[in-house]
Every structure is written in structure tokens, then in C-alpha cells.
Design a protein that fits this description.
Number of strands of chain B: 4
Largest interface: A-B, 98 and 95 residues
CATH architecture of one domain in chain B: Orthogonal Bundle
Number of helices of chain A: 14
CATH architecture of chain A: Orthogonal Bundle
CATH topology of chain A: MetI-like fold
Number of helices of chain B: 14
Shape of chain A: globular
Order of helices and strands of chain B: EEHEEHHHHHHHHHHHHH
CATH topology of one domain in chain B: MetI-like fold
Structural class of chain A: mainly alpha
Number of domains of chain A: 1
Helix content of chain B: 55-70%
Order of helices and strands of chain A: HHHHEHHHHHHHHHH
CATH class of one domain in chain B: Mainly Alpha
CATH superfamily of one domain in chain B: MetI-like
Oligomer: heterodimer
Distance between the termini of chain B: 59 Å
Number of strands of chain A: 1
CATH superfamily of chain A: MetI-like
Strand content of chain A: under 5%
Largest sheet of chain B: 2 strands, antiparallel
Helix content of chain A: over 70%
Shape of chain B: globular
CATH class of chain A: Mainly Alpha
Structural class of chain B: mainly alpha
Strand order of the largest sheet of chain B: 1-2
Chain lengths: 273, 301
């Protein structure tokens, strides 16, 4: 009896969870295919109209095409900088003993836990001093610095598992430290490095506060800003907003789809070792 | 074969400044764009600064102002309240992962529940602004099944808006949590579970005495991840869902920093708010460490 009760309760829990996840998404998908006037006449009904014009309108009204390009221009270099620096430093911390190693680790840990809100104002002032506020590459570099610490600690723990014998063999064959890093360490850690890159791109793509403050010009808005302002300003334009939400989430879905293989390999390699 | 000199090894690790060179690029960037700004933040927090003229040293004035400002009390309480969301952000994926683990279509269920984890906070905010609107589908559904009393102003009632925020964050993060807990579940030996079941442990006892301790390292990792991705930045959630309203009912410290930056006249005060946000995060991490120590002590005695 008891087990039958708990089985049906757990079924109920999972069904509720599935409905809670799918319900809102399906509802918003439906809203995105209604005409605005028909939606406004009954925002809580399923509605009768079917249209795809909202997607085209959201694209132009929200300037989503432009915003997608801006986001890409900021995030690709930003994630590359963060991943490259993290790979180098992760290797240095994992395989070398040198004075200041503990201090560097402590600085990275502290940096990882800092709220972005604590950094935004002084970074803005710093940017003003050097005249780089409103430059997309400045935001990339800032993202590179802010999102590198966790990736460094992630890659360090991965590199620690690279057996010392492999490195000794490389050295006996005459490979210098640079060569060992590029032709032994990096290929071995490729799944972990790719995982770090994908998650970094994800975090940077979603970042809002620094993007709002450091890219004040509306020509340079990222997708995240565009969509946030979209849904807060066009409060009555339900269908338009709904369509914009789906367009804006597409790039990340594609990123996860492409990266799935790598993410799984990275996680697997990390857990098996 | 070149003249490879024997490397100096300490437990298979090389000694020398080479390792420092590998860290130098990252260290430079982090010092310039994280450490130096934080030092400046503390300095700004002791000044009166409007952005146009040079900052003027005012000592503790900003902090004293905040102590007396009733809106700030509410903002600080909001932050502490949302931190309480950790309880559901951890327990919901923990329980769901255990239940789903025994399902035949477990992979499919987990894939569906992971979808929200791929949405950015502002998109999640946009979705729930539509779904949880006062005249939206959730409220009309509640009214139609006779639960009209539960048809709250989810985003407009200052008494429920923080609960809504915590639940929405739970909705968006549980997919990742389930993923990590599932990885932990595969590592628990089935004989361990069978033994507990033979001893007549009921469902709750299984969760509390078997699964919870066995998954402790996953919980610690998940808490760390939540701390880094969510607790250090409620901003995009608040901006996307409520814009801090109604009034300051859902304003968090980081949203308040944004408001002061946007107004631009009281930057010193904004810096003080940001400094308090740092202290709060440090307090959370310290509490986690203390809890760990206490647990270790009690397990020894």
C-alpha cells in the first residue's frame, strides 16, 4: 500500500513539473501566433486568430537582427579571451609550483564570488577615463576578465588529472614547456576547454547589467538588452513580445544543440577520472 | 634528442617561475578589471560623487544614510528573503531527480525539464510577465476551477512578488540541478538502497537518511553554482520580471545599484549599496563554510 501511494505521488509530482515547464512555454508560443487586437480582447483565452506576422514585426520593431550581430561581436571574442586565459592559467596552477600560487588561487576564488553590481560602477568610471565606454571590444575584455576565474578553476582540476608520465615522455622527446602545452595539454583537455567556452558564451550572452551600462548607445544593444526592454516597454504588445522571446532564445538553443556532444564528453571525462 | 635537462619535480609538478608566466595574462586582466575596480568601489563608497565633479570624501555618510533610509531596509530584507529561495532551488531538483531516476523514460523527462535552463533570465522574465499577468491565463485558470482566492497579483502585489521571483528562479534552474543530481545518483550503490528498503525505511526516511547524505557533495557543488550564477546577480531576473516593483517590493541590492547609476547623481551612495552587496555574498559563503565545519564536528563526536 505504502509503496503504491508513494509511486502515484511521485508520478503526480513529475506530471506537475512537466506541466509547469511546458505550460508557460506553449502558452507564450500560442500568444506569439495571435493578432495583437484579438489578443487584447481576451489575453487569458486561447483565441481564434493564427498569424506569423508577429515574428517579422518583432524582428524589425525590436531591431533583433542588429542586436543579434552586436551580441555575437561581443560574446565570441569575450568567450575566446576568457577561455584562452583560463586554459593557460589553469595549466600553470595545475602543473607548476611557484611562489604566489596560493595567492593567485585565492584572488580567482574571490573574483568568482563578486557580484557584478559591485564591479559595474568602478568599471564604468575606468572606461570613461580611457574613453572606451560604448566600445563593444571593451565589454568583451571586461567579460573576458570577469568570466575567466571560474573557468580557470574548472580547467585546473581537469589538468591536475593529466598524468605526469605523459609530460615526462614529452620532455624526454625534447618538447619545451610551450610545446608540451600546445601539443599535449590542449588536445587532451579539448572537451573541457570546449565546455568552458560554451558555458562562458552562454553566461556572457545572458549578461545584462554591464551591457546596459557599458553600451549605452541604442545602436549597440545586445539581444539580452533588446529583449528585456521589449518585454517591459511594450506591455500591451503581448504577441509581439512573445514572438521576440522565441527569436531571441533560438541562438542559445542552437549553441546547446551543437555543443551537446562536447558538453556531455566534458562532463563524462570529468566525472570518470 | 636535444639537451633536455632533468626537470625539478615536486610530486610530479615543476618548480619555477614558468608556472607564473602561464598565469600572468589572466592575473593582469583580473587585477586591472576586477581587483582595482573593487578597491575603487570601496573608495567611492566613502565619497559624495555626482559623476561630473571630482568625488569628495564624506567618511561614513553614505552608510549612515542607508541605515536610516526605510526603502533600503526593505531592499536589504528583499535580498535576504530571496536567499531563502535556496531551500527550494536545492530541494526541488533533489526530489525530482530521485523520482525521475526510476522512470523508464527518464531521459525524455529530464530533457523536457532542462529546456528552461537554456533560456536567459530576461526571456524567462518575459514569459512569466505574460503568463502571470493579473488578467493572464494562470489567474483565469485558478478562477475557473474555483480557486479565485489564489489568483494573486503575482507581479503586482507587494506581498507575493518576492515569492513569485523565487519560484520563477526555481522553474528556470531546476533542469540543471536535476542533471547534476542524476550524475550523483548513478554513483550510489543499489545494494545500499536495497538494504535501507529491507530495513523498512519509508519514503521520507530514504530521502533524509540515505539520499541526502549520499548526495551531499553534489548539493555542495550545486549550491556553489547557484551562488556564482544567481546569488551574485539577481539583477537580470528582477529587471526581466518586475523592474523592482511594485514600489521597491522586489528591488534587490544590485537592482538598486543600477537605479543609482542610471540617475547618476548619488554614485557614492550606489557604491555603498554595492559594497553591502559584496558583504552579503561573503556572509552567505561564510555561513556555508561554518555549516560544513559544524557538521564535521558533530560527525566526529
Amino acid at each position: 500500500m505504502r509503496s503504491r501511494l508513494s509511486t502515484s505521488l511521485s508520478w503526480l509530482g513529475v506530471v506537475v513539473a512537466m506541466l509547469t515547464v511546458l505550460g508557460p512555454l506553449l502558452w507564450v508560443l500560442r500568444v506569439s501566433t495571435r493578432t495583437t487586437s484579438e489578443y487584447l480582447s481576451g489575453p487569458s483565452s486561447w483565441g481564434i486568430s493564427w498569424t506569423l506576422t508577429n515574428y517579422a514585426d518583432a524582428w524589425t520593431v525590436g531591431g533583433l537582427g542588429h542586436a543579434l550581430i552586436n551580441s555575437t561581436i561581443v560574446v565570441i571574442p569575450g568567450a575566446l579571451v576568457a577561455t584562452l586565459l583560463a586554459t593557460l592559467a589553469g595549466w600553470g596552477l595545475a602543473k607548476f609550483v611557484f611562489p604566489g600560487r596560493g595567492v593567485i588561487t585565492a584572488i580567482l576564488l574571490a573574483a568568482m564570488f563578486l557580484p557584478i553590481a559591485a564591479l559595474v560602477m568602478p568599471i564604468f568610471e575606468l572606461g570613461l577615463d580611457y574613453g572606451v565606454v560604448g566600445n563593444r571590444w571593451f565589454l568583451s575584455v571586461v567579460y573576458g576578465a570577469i568570466f575567466a576565474p571560474w573557468a580557470t578553476l574548472f580547467l585546473r582540476s581537469y589538468f591536475t588529472n593529466v598524468p605526469g608520465e605523459v609530460l615526462e615522455a614529452a620532455e624526454i622527446d625534447g618538447a619545451g614547456p610551450g610545446r608540451t602545452f600546445t601539443s599535449i595539454a590542449m588536445p587532451l583537455a579539448l572537451p573541457a576547454i570546449t565546455t568552458a567556452f560554451i558555458l562562458n558564451a552562454f553566461l556572457q550572452w545572458n549578461e545584462l547589467l554591464l551591457a546596459l551600462i557599458l553600451l549605452p548607445s541604442s545602436d549597440l544593444t545586445t539581444v539580452t538588452i533588446a529583449i528585456a526592454q521589449f518585454s517591459t516597454q511594450f506591455r500591451t504588445g503581448g504577441p509581439l513580445t512573445a514572438a521576440g522571446l522565441f527569436i531571441a532564445s533560438l541562438p542559445i538553443f542552437i549553441l546547446f544543440l551543437i555543443g551537446q556532444r562536447w558538453l556531455r564528453a566534458g562532463a563524462l571525462a570529468g566525472s570518470v577520472k | 634528442m636535444s639537451s633536455a635537462r632533468p626537470p625539478v619535480l615536486v610530486g610530479r609538478r615543476r618548480v619555477g617561475l614558468l608556472g607564473f608566466l602561464f598565469c600572468a595574462p589572466l592575473l593582469t586582466l583580473v587585477l586591472a578589471l576586477v581587483a582595482w575596480p573593487i578597491i575603487n568601489l570601496v573608495r567611492y563608497s566613502f565619497t559624495s560623487y555626482g559623476g561630473l565633479t571630482a568625488p569628495v570624501w564624506v567618511g561614513l555618510k553614505n552608510y549612515l544614510f542607508l541605515i536610516k533610509w526605510s526603502d533600503f531596509h526593505r531592499i536589504l530584507l528583499n535580498n535576504v528573503f530571496i536567499l531563502g529561495g535556496l531551500v527550494i532551488w536545492i530541494s526541488v531538483p533533489l526530489l525530482l531527480s530521485i523520482v525521475i531516476f526510476k522512470f523508464r523514460k527518464a531521459d525524455l523527462v529530464r530533457a523536457v525539464l532542462f529546456v528552461p535552463a537554456m533560456l536567459s533570465p530576461v526571456i524567462v522574465g518575459g514569459v512569466f510577465r505574460i503568463v502571470l499577468a493579473d488578467d493572464g491565463p494562470v489567474n483565469s485558470l485558478l478562477r475557473s476551477v474555483g480557486l479565485g482566492v489564489l489568483a494573486f497579483g503575482w507581479l503586482s502585489d507587494s506581498r507575493v512578488v518576492l515569492v513569485t521571483l523565487a519560484l520563477v528562479i526555481c522553474w528556470a534552474t531546476m533542469g540543471s540541478g536535476i542533471l547534476f543530481y542524476t550524475a550523483g545518483l548513478t554513483a550510489i550503490s543499489p545494494s545500499y538502497l536495497e538494504a535501507a528498503e529491507l530495513d523498512g525505511a519509508n519514503w521520507w526516511q530514504m530521502i533524509w537518511y540515505i539520499y541526502r547524505p549520499a548526495l551531499r557533495s553534489i548539493t555542495r557543488f550545486w549550491m556553489l553554482l547557484l551562488t556564482v550564477t544567481t546569488i551574485t546577480g539577481f539583477f537580470p531576473w528582477v529587471y526581466g520580471l518586475t523592474l523592482g516593483g511594485p514600489g521597491v517590493a522586489s528591488t534587490t541590492l544590485d537592482y538598486a545599484v543600477y537605479i543609482t547609476l542610471n540617475q547618476g547623481s548619488e554614485l557614492g551612495r550606489g557604491a555603498a549599496i554595492a559594497a553591502i552587496a559584496v558583504i552579503l555574498v561573503l556572509a552567505v559563503i561564510l555561513l556555508q563554510q561554518v555549516a560544513r565545519l559544524i557538521r564535521r564536528e558533530s560527525s566526529w563526536s
